[in-house]
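Quick note —
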Amino acid sequence: MIRTLIFGAIAGYVGKKLYDDGKLDQFRDDLVARYNQAKADLSDQRAADSSPPTPVTHSATPLVS
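Predicted structure written out below.
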């Protein structure tokens, strides 16, 4: 548990230092761009899926009871 606390403190300190220096801005911008691209792709996919379905024909023989 002590190791976890020490590691967390070090990660927090380093993260704060990187944030203050502005070195995380490029990472944040890339993350936002990827999110917006994925959202647009999903929207396009939903629009394509909402088109009327085409009938599906099966070559299987009908079941006789």
